[in-house]
TrEMBL record:
<dbReference type="InterPro" id="IPR054169">
    <property type="entry name" value="GlgB_N"/>
</dbReference>
<dbReference type="Pfam" id="PF22019">
    <property type="entry name" value="GlgB_N"/>
</dbReference>
<dbReference type="GO" id="GO:0003844">
    <property type="term" value="F:1,4-alpha-glucan branching enzyme activity"/>
</dbReference>
<feature type="active site" description="Proton donor">
    <location>
        <position position="458"/>
    </location>
</feature>
<dbReference type="GO" id="GO:0005978">
    <property type="term" value="P:glycogen biosynthetic process"/>
</dbReference>
<keyword id="KW-0808">Transferase</keyword>
<keyword id="KW-0328">Glycosyltransferase</keyword>
<keyword id="KW-0320">Glycogen biosynthesis</keyword>
<keyword id="KW-0119">Carbohydrate metabolism</keyword>
<dbReference type="InterPro" id="IPR006048">
    <property type="entry name" value="A-amylase/branching_C"/>
</dbReference>
<dbReference type="GO" id="GO:0005829">
    <property type="term" value="C:cytosol"/>
</dbReference>
<dbReference type="InterPro" id="IPR037439">
    <property type="entry name" value="Branching_enzy"/>
</dbReference>
<feature type="domain" description="Glycosyl hydrolase family 13 catalytic">
    <location>
        <begin position="245"/>
        <end position="608"/>
    </location>
</feature>
<comment type="pathway">
    <text>Glycan biosynthesis; glycogen biosynthesis.</text>
</comment>
<dbReference type="GO" id="GO:0043169">
    <property type="term" value="F:cation binding"/>
</dbReference>
<dbReference type="InterPro" id="IPR013780">
    <property type="entry name" value="Glyco_hydro_b"/>
</dbReference>
<comment type="similarity">
    <text>Belongs to the glycosyl hydrolase 13 family. GlgB subfamily.</text>
</comment>
Length: 727
């Protein structure tokens, strides 16, 4: 096949061998490819060559290159384009394009520093400089890859890319600028056209219908969070952590006087961050913001892993959101989804016609629960892609932590599969050794390069040592969601108080394993969707009892060892389930009940963050002791939390029945005065305002295997906190 036909039919995988300056022993030939051009001119800074010969009828030209111009940057001016300036030929920069792949696999972060679309300034051997973009994409089994975009009318013939020995395709295109849209036109190994693919390393992306990647410069934004970055070096395990989980698209919507569907990152930086700060939360956790095509996935079917979703603004505006959070003293955690990805045509699925990113066998590579592809955790290129992505968000966006989604689905080969639907590992078991290895490596790299950040596992099984260091045989996560506590405690609180005495173990069992991991107590978005009911409507009884149960449960949660996480809207006591297509029910704050419950969550946060006994030993047995865990008859649980120096103790008592209890005796360790710190039944929280003493003196009466005791009043369906400060 003639060379021109190869280019015309997009069949050339080695354009650098045929285009640009081709030098042999006798002479140097300059060859240019410009589809459909009938005549071109080659132009240097002060000279032009018009006698360029067309070697075909459809765009291939060549001329002998005078020695005095070798090494100088030249332009191509095509007749009929109404552009006297023309363009700098990309194919004179073969060495600079190849440079991208030399260091990619030496460390994970090199992937996002070298691949994708990188803005560069190149200098010729003559000292001339030119700005442009180097493109580098991994498609090892493609027969050809072309760069397409607005700059070439999305014509796959115009910019064929060069295939390297590592399976990457490269091309440097001069004078492209930030904001330009692009994709890749890929032919599979058999020469069949695939759907145009977005850049797996794209830093910015458009929404439907284009789903195009956009060139973006990460070096423009100037950060103003140095004080926070220094502050976050403190020990996270003995610091308070109360997390507000947020779906940015439905926390609050724009007013009716605008056509905007969502608040922008900038608007959220002002509105959301000030709210989170006022409510006393220490961190905000965002449902996935990596670019995703379908609103209804809430971000859990990501396509653009290196691009914050453009629904709310551009990448710099997301940086602004993080920056403003840090300036307000709020940490930012993002949900990270390395377990699976959707089949959308512009995404990773069968990227070059083969399974580049996913397992080939559907028994490993297809997720039946989410109808999505599973990453091949055994491939070096996929492993680097995922680890690089984890580092990328911490590096370029200063996020403080990654909450890793669906870890259990990664750990087990038989997750949500019946017999015969999965492939055992080499030892005949169900553990995915490749995924386990990947998670360990990811955590090691994160804590190696960003020791002040954190990783949090959403892991719903009893897999051992999830939040223990890799050197200790663990997976290396910093924290783990306590799904067992969540399940058992919600099962308990949903029972009618008359029957709770038969289920007392549900509310106490968590302390059997509370210190096996570094736990976060999650009441997340998953608990208020898909028919599970809102938090308020999980509670039994009439309107007052539902609200009281919710307040009592919230108090119990804040007293229990473990960091805290609450999904947005829990504090409003919404009656309806969360709906990602609409705002939270902010109008409920016009009513005293909802305003009171919001006030309780605010008070709990401020009590928690200002009381070392409630957070310093969240993950150490020495910070907790039962007073009485056997009082099933009265459905009362009581325990004490202690600061690290043991000088502060908080006595927490929860009455899970609507029966008030006078003269209720609790054991106390010391002769002291107990000061009421919080009562969830307080009238300020829409409680019954049952009379409770603000201070109580202890008595030398042994109780609960302690030398002293005190008599307190337990309001109905309430949790009370009494603080003792010992000199």
């Amino acid at each position: 096949m003639q060379l021109a036909q190869q280019f015309e039919q997009v069949l050339c995988s080695q354009p650098f061998s045929h285009l640009g300056v081709i030098t042999n022993k006798q002479e140097s030939i300059l060859r240019v490819w410009h589809p459909n051009a009938s005549q071109i001119t080659i132009k240097w800074e002060n000279t032009a060559l018009a006698n360029v010969t067309a070697t075909s009828n459809n765009g291939l030209f060549e001329t002998k290159l005078p020695k005095e111009y070798q090494g100088e940057i030249y332009r191509v001016i095509a007749e009929g384009l109404n552009d006297d300036k023309g363009y700098i030929d990309p194919y004179q920069f073969s060495e600079q394009a190849y440079h991208a792949v030399h260091y990619i696999d030496s460390k994970p972060s090199n992937l996002y520093e070298q691949a994708g679309a990188q803005l560069l300034t190149l200098t010729s051997s003559q000292g001339d400089s030119v700005k442009g973009v180097r493109f580098c994409v991994f498609a090892p089994n493609a027969s050809t890859v072309s760069l397409i975009g607005d700059f070439n009318q999305w014509d796959g013939r115009t910019h064929p890319m060069e295939k390297t020995s590592m399976g990457y395709w490269v091309l440097f295109v001069p004078e492209l600028a930030e904001g330009e849209r692009y994709k890749y036109h890929i032919k599979d190994a058999h020469g069949h056209d695939l759907p145009h693919k977005a850049d797996p390393l794209g830093f910015s992306a458009e929404q439907y219908p284009s789903h195009a990647s956009k060139i973006y410069n990460h070096n423009n934004y100037e950060w103003n969070d140095s004080a926070w970055m220094e502050k976050r070096k403190g020990n996270k395990y003995n610091s308070p952590m109360s997390i507000y989980e947020v779906h940015l698209g439905s926390w609050k919507r724009p007013g009716i006087d605008t056509d905007a569907r969502y608040l922008t990152y900038k608007a959220l930086a002002d509105d959301l961050i000030s709210y989170v700060s006022d409510m006393g939360y220490t961190h905000v956790e965002l449902l996935p913001i990596s670019e995703f095509p379908f609103d209804g996935s809430w971000g859990y079917q990501p396509v653009g892993m290196f691009a914050p979703t453009s629904r709310f603004g551009n990448p710099d505006e997301f940086k602004y959101f993080v920056d403003k959070a840090h300036q307000a003293g709020i940490g930012v955690i993002i949900d990270w989804v390395p377990a699976h990805f959707p089949e959308d045509g512009h995404g990773l699925a069968r990227f070059d016609g083969s399974c580049v990113y996913e397992y080939e066998d559907p028994r490993k590579g297809w997720h039946p629960d989410w109808n999505s592809c599973i990453y091949d955790f055994g491939k070096d290129t996929v492993r680097q892609f995922l680890v690089a992505n984890a580092l990328f968000w911490l590096d370029k966006f200063h996020v403080d932590g990654l909450r890793v989604d669906a870890v259990a689905s990664m750990l087990y080969l038989d997750y949500s599969r019946n017999d015969g639907e999965w492939i055992p590992n080499v030892d005949g078991g169900n553990e995915n050794y490749e995924a386990i290895s990947l998670l360990k490596w990811m955590n090691e790299e994160v804590y190696k390069h960003f020791p002040d950040a954190m990783t949090i596992a959403e892991e719903s099984t009893s897999f051992p040592k999830v939040s223990r260091p890799v050197f200790d045989g663990g997976l290396g996560f910093g924290f783990k969601w306590n799904m067992g506590w969540m399940h058992d405690s919600l099962h308990y609180i949903a029972k009618d108080p008359a029957y709770r005495n038969y289920h007392h173990g549900d509310i106490t069992f968590s302390m059997v394993y509370a210190f096996d991991e570094n736990f976060v107590l999650p009441i997340s978005h998953d608990e208020v969707v898909h028919g599970k009911g809102s938090m308020l409507h999980k509670m039994p009884g009439d309107e007052w009892q539902q609200a009281a149960n919710l307040r009592c449960y919230a108090g119990f949660m804040y007293g229990h060892p473990g960091k805290k996480l609450n999904f947005m809207g829990n504090e409003l006591a919404q009656a309806r389930e969360w709906n990602h297509d609409s705002s939270l029910d902010w109008h409920l704050l016009d009513y005293e009940k909802h305003k009171g419950i919001q006030a309780l969550y605010k008070a709990l946060n401020h009590l928690y963050t200002s009381t070392p006994a409630l957070y310093e030993q969240d993950h150490e047995p020495g910070g907790f002791a039962w007073l009485d865990h056997n009082n099933a008859d009265q459905s009362v649980v009581s325990f004490v939390r202690m600061s690290k120096d043991a000088r502060q103790k908080v006595y927490v008592v929860s009455n899970f029945t609507p029966v008030p209890r006078q003269n209720f005796r609790i054991g106390v360790d010391d002769a002291c005065t107990l000061t009421l710190a919080l009562n969830t039944d307080d009238g300020a929280y829409w409680g019954s305002d049952y009379d409770v003493a603000s201070t109580v003196n202890t008595q030398t009466i042994p109780w609960n295997e302690r030398t002293h005791s005190a008599e307190i009043t337990l309001p109905p369906l309430a949790t009370v906190f009494y603080v003792a400060n010992v000199d």
